[in-house]
């Protein structure tokens, strides 16, 4: 068959035009997605700031509903909570069609949701993963004309449920907003509820004890853990009138371990609420990237969540440090946001040599201080026998002498006992602080972490 050169050329030109149009459409979609992501990031930041300042559980949940209406363009958001009747979930405010209690056929869904905290899209309820819960969840979604069910789960407890009338399935970017906003919303709701419940029986003068209760709920219960040959030993001692310091850790599927430590500005319930919000945001970021983490971007996201324009730079501020440890290669990455520098304590490599103590110095502003902070990431190795030391400045203020002198004394103790086990080294360091303090009362929370390779 003989080809027509003109037709071939015309077909080639048409193909080129189609490719150009497709490229332009793809670029347009990407630009729209970027713009949408910026809008939703703003929604998330505004909500976190409002949640920090909230004075009641109802106020936190109302702020959440407003954020979802604004951010997702939802027709309505119905919040189911158990504020009035313990254990019985009811609409926080009457829906447009009147007050609708959850249907009896959906009651079992609430117990299931606390173990399955991800968002539920009504159009996906046919998936096998929902199993026997398909019918109860479908009944719940139909009761409130909701395309999305968003559970707020905190420490294994269902705090509330948002039924979102969206009129469509959420986009991928909108799912990111939901995944990011639910953990801090759940943390803020749970901690305000704790404050309210305690206030019914405690006098105002006992608020400090409440702050310590909130803070204790954020700290891992284990004092020692081991991951892939890496041992972590923790010491936490809370002081009266404080409630601002915390630490936590996150495991990754490939064996890596993320350890974070923080200290909120101020004291009492205000500082503990800032700590709770930061911890909730960190949980959200971990949920959004279950297989990876960028330390600099994580610090930036946490800082943006705490930064509030017009409220002064110290309204919601926290110092923070994080180590990402890869046990297989012994590599360690670290970031710092105005926190006391971690140390790398190396034992004497050979007889006649001395141990070394190195500060892991990368710089960055405290979380919440700047709108667009920049953080550097450092890298080191965790050789066998080496100990990484993370602490809060409460360790220094635990001593009854100027912080600089107390810090040098603790550094000397570390060098003199570098070969000790982490548990023994922790005990020795705390004994040094206790000796310097004498009989004086503890001034600040103490958090000390020893990570041995």
Question: What would you note in describing this structure?
Answer:
By secondary structure, the chain is of the alpha+beta class. The chain is built from 11 helices and 16 strands. It has helices at 5-53, 57-72, 107-113, 134-143, 172-199, 207-216, 268-288, 295-306, 394-397, 403-416, 422-437, and strands at residues 76-81, 90-91, 120-121, 148-154, 157-165, 224-227, 230-237, 245-251, 257-264, 318-326, 331-337, 343-346, 356-359, 378-381, 387-391, 446-452. The strands form 3 sheets. It has a 6-stranded antiparallel beta sheet, with helices on one face. A 5-stranded antiparallel beta sheet has the order 2-1-5-4-3, with helices on both faces. A 5-stranded antiparallel beta sheet has the order 8-9-10-11-14. The longest helix has 49 residues, at 5-53. It is globular, with a radius of gyration of 26 Å.
What's the architecture of the largest domain in CATH terms? 4-Layer Sandwich
Distance between the termini: 74 Å
Overall 3D form: globular
Number of domains: 2
For this structure, what is the CATH class of the largest domain?
Alpha Beta
- The class by helix and strand makeup works out as alpha+beta
Strand order of the largest sheet: 6-7-16-15-12-13
In percent, how helical is the residue content?
40-55%
List the secondary-structure elements in sequence, H or E.
Answer: HHEEHEHEEHHEEEEHHEEEEEEHHHE
Main beta sheet strand tally, sense and closure: 6 strands, antiparallel
- Estimate the strand proportion: 15-25%
- Average pLDDT confidence is 79
Number of helices: 11
């Amino acid at each position: 068959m003989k080809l027509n050169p003109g037709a071939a050329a015309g077909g080639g030109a048409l193909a080129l035009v189609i490719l150009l149009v497709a490229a332009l459409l793809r670029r347009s979609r990407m630009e729209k997605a970027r713009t949408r992501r910026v809008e939703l990031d703003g929604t998330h930041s505004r909500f976190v700031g409002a949640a920090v300042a909230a004075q009641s559980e109802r106020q936190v949940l109302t702020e959440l509903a407003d954020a979802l209406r604004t951010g997702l363009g939802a027709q309505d958001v119905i919040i189911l909570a158990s504020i009035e009747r313990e254990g019985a979930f009811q609409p926080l405010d009457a829906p447009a069609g009147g007050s609708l209690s959850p249907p009896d056929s959906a009651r079992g869904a609430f117990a299931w949701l606390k173990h399955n905290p991800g968002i539920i899209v009504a159009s996906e309820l046919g998936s096998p993963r929902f199993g026997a819960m398909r019918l109860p969840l479908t009944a719940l979604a139909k009761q409130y004309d909701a395309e999305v069910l968003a559970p707020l789960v905190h420490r294994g407890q269902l705090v509330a449920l948002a039924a979102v009338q969206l009129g469509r399935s959420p986009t991928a970017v909108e799912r990111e907003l939901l995944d990011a906003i639910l953990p801090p919303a759940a943390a803020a709701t749970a901690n305000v509820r704790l404050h309210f419940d305690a206030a019914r029986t405690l006098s105002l003068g006992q608020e400090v004890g409440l702050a310590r209760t909130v803070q204790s709920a954020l700290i891992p219960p284990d004092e020692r853990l081991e991951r892939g040959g890496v041992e972590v030993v923790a010491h936490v001692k809370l002081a009266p009138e404080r409630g601002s310091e915390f630490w936590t850790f996150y495991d990754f599927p490939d064996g890596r371990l993320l350890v974070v430590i923080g200290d909120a500005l101020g004291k009492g319930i205000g500082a503990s609420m800032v700590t709770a919000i930061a911890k909730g945001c960190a949980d959200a970021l971990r949920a959004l990237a279950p297989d990876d983490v960028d330390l600099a971007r994580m610090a930036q996201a946490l800082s943006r969540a705490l930064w509030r324009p017009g409220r002064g730079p110290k309204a919601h501020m926290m110092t923070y440090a994080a180590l990402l440890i890869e046990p297989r290669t012994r590599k360690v990455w670290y970031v710092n946001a105005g926190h006391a520098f971690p140390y790398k304590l190396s034992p004497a490599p050979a007889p006649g040599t001395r141990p070394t103590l190195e500060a892991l110095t990368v710089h960055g502003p405290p979380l919440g201080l700047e709108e667009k902070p920049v953080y550097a990431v450092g890298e080191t190795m965790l050789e066998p026998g080496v100990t990484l030391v993370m602490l809060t400045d409460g360790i220094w203020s635990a001593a009854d002498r100027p912080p600089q002198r107390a810090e040098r004394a603790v550094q000397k103790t570390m060098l003199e006992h570098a070969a000790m086990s982490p548990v023994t080294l922790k005990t020795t360091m705390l004994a040094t602080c206790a000796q310097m303090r004498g009989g004086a009362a503890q001034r600040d929370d103490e958090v000390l972490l020893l990570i041995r390779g």
